[in-house]
Amino acid sequence: MIALDISIKNKCYGNSDAVVLKDINFSVKPGEFVAIIGPSGCGKSTLLNMLCGLEESSEQKLLCNGKAINGDELHKLGYIFQQPRLMPWLTVQENLQLVLPLSQHEQIDDLLTQVGLSGKGGYFPKQLSGGMQRRVAIARAFAVNPELILLDEPFNSLDAPTAAKLRLLLVKLCQNRGSTVIFVTHDLSEAVYLADRIIFMSNTPTSIIHQIKVNLTKPRQEAGSKELAWQAKLMDEHPKILAGKTN
Amino acid sequence: MLIILALTWQTAAWFINSADFPSLLNVIDSFIYHVNQGDMLANISITLGRVFISFIIAMTLGVIIGIIMGCSDKVNELSDTLLIIALNIPALVTILLCYIWLGLVESAAITAVVINKIPTVVVMIREGARVVDQDLLAVAKVYKLSPRITFFKVFLPQIYPYIMASARAGLSLIWKIVLVVELLGRSDGVGFALNTLFQFFDIAGILAYTFAFIAVVLVIEALVFRPLDKLTSRGMNHDSA
Questions:
Q1: Residue B19 included in any domain
Q2: A120 and A49 share a domain?
Q3: Domain around A117
Q4: pLDDT tens-digit readout, B32-76
Q5: Which end of chain B offers a freer environment for a tag, N or C, measured as fewer CB atoms within 10 Å?
Q6: Exposure pattern of A217-228 as b/e (b: 16+ CB <10 Å)?
Q7: What is the DSSP letter of A64?
């Protein structure tokens, strides 16, 4: 498990001067599940991409267990993107083999069973439903025994029952593995259900408005009475944060 | 369809009744004659050898150059004008220059064919490399795949359709150019045989050779390209669940 200290002074969009992230500073404890909520286009995905080295800024500092690293130096990393991003020409099994060393290929069947895709290893992604493809993407992320998992609105565009099943699967896998998780979403109830802490972000140039600990015991219930009450109280106390505005 | 075409031809030849328009039966007779003489199989194998060598060299170089140009804006900018020039040099000019500079030798023939084919391969592969899905490459980067695995398992499969399209177009173009090369400067091969038949106004012989070579290309399509097509498009043609 790893702890992260993230500090981004300034991140511009592409080669332009438009600042997308400004003065983002937060820490993530080992095994903590942190949700990041912010308005569309505020740079949540950019933030995740910077953490894994897909995007860079000269004005960022990333400390992993106290040691300064670049995003691409995080080795045991799982990333579940908004779209499953499976290689369409590879079977489910081959998609998982792709990220694993040869010596660990035998664990694939077990992984597929864990995500409810037992017997589907020989299928191509196009032969699977959207929900099943997400399951494969989740299996791929957990296949590498990740110390850190990044999730970028992974249940977007799924129907509600499928999304609920996948959230439950994610909770189980995270409990078993104890990975540190950074989860980007725009859905507050999803964040309340999953996260230990929620970070609220503003509109661009994006900065952190609030960090709120979700002090509800686990396991939680999706749309349970306690969870809904906590969410309602949060919205009463901080009516503007969900719109990305400071109080 | 082929039967209708054959019947139409045979009927037209019967009506026209001229040596310049031989009947299908005459062409078949000529085919059997040249096969029995042994020259047809020998010439076709020689031409096929030239086609094969030129095809392999042109495809290999074309794919490499196309990928580099498609992936690097700088290289593309520097080479684009050269590519346009290469695309527009008439095949005949390249063939003549190769024969003049290198002599009437096998290597000149192969070089001429390769030079003619490379630019068209480059153009197609460059377009393929330009539209490679960056999201899938991001997956490779996040999961720290080696450059070799990223290239062969993530990048290359995305340009397989472009490689197959240029290979198909390439084969048909290459064998036509090889015939011209043989006609102009070789003493064997289908091109040379066609030239000889032309000098005797043996239209039936010319058509017999042409159909024999087309048949060979159709066999190559069925035995090589179709299985390759199936292999390279695996996973892409299934209906969504």
A1: no
A2: no
A3: 86-145
A4: 999 998 899 999 999 999 999 999 999 999 999 999 999 999 999
A5: N
A6: eeebebeeeebe
A7: E
The structural domain count of chain A equals: 2
ipTM of predicted assembly, 2 dp: 0.88
B157, A126: Cβ pair inside 8 Å?
no
Is residue B12 included in any domain, yes or no?
A: no
User: Please, which residues have CB within 8 angstroms of residue A9's CB and are 6 or more apart in sequence?
Assistant: A22, A23, A59, A60
Amino acid (one-letter) located at B105: V
Residue A247, pLDDT > 50, answer no
Condensed to tens digits (0 to 9), the pLDDT of residues B185-194 reads 888 999 999 9
Q: Does A102 touch chain B (CB under 8 A)?
A: no
Contact status of B148 with chain A (Cβ, < 8 Å): no
**Contact status, residue A58 vs residue A80, Cβ threshold 8 Å:** no
B149 Cβ under 8 Å from any chain A Cβ: yes
Is A141 in the same domain as A176? Answer: no
CB contact under 8 A, A127 and B149: no
Residue B44: domain span: 40-240
Query: Which chain B residues are closer than 8 Å to A127 by Cβ?
Result: 238-241
What's the CA gap between A229 and B193, in Å, rounded? Answer: 90
Domain membership flag for residue A81: no
Considering the domain boundaries, does residue B15 fall inside one?
A: no
**Domain end marker among A145, A171, A192:** A145
Residue B180 belongs to some domain of the structure:
yes
Among A51, A79, A83, A89, the strongest candidate for a mutation testing the B interface, having the largest count of B CBs within 10 A, is: A89
Chain B residues whose beta carbon lies within 8 Å of the beta carbon of residue A72: 141
Note whether B142 contacts A79, CB cutoff 8 Å: yes
| Nearest CB partner across the interface for B235, out of A81, A126, A140 | A126
Which residues are registered as beta bridge partners of A26?
Answer: A6
- Tally of structural domains, chain B: 1
User: Same structural domain for residues A193 and A157?
Assistant: yes
Query: Which residues on chain A are in Cβ contact (under 8 Å) with B239?
Result: 126-127
